[in-house]
User: What shape does this take?
Amino acid sequence: MIVRHTNGRVFVIDTQGLSDKEYLQRNPSGGFRIVNSLPDAPFPLYREDDNGGIIPDIDRIRLAWRSSISDATSKLLDDTAAAKGYDSMQSARSYAGFDNPFRAEALALAEWSARCWEVLGELWEQVIAGELEITSPAAPLTLLPTYPQ
Assistant: This one.
């Protein structure tokens, strides 16, 4: 997370890897509050705590990250299948279930895809447990198994 001053009283909170920004305003007491009146203010990834302070809304941040990581993983799988001549990974998997000239290759792609999602689930559990820090949606892609060429 990056915090920047925009003027003497409003701060921009960028959550790395996400395109959304949060706008906070300093209260006279020194705390912060979300500024709702800015145009195009995105859905907040922060919430007000019981004392009127601003804290990260971990559930919303995790949901946003999980969606971004899932999209990046789907793109990797689809791009790999497309490089082999399939429209998408879903298309490639459809050839794995019956006898045809593409079955062996489709089965290898399907097994690799399943393993990637399995590893991604394991990585996500490590993130939730605080054992792994993910700095961008693309970062977990380097930890996934590579497709055997």
Summary: The chain has two domains: 2-56, 60-143. Residues 1-19, 36-43 have pLDDT under 50 and may be disordered.
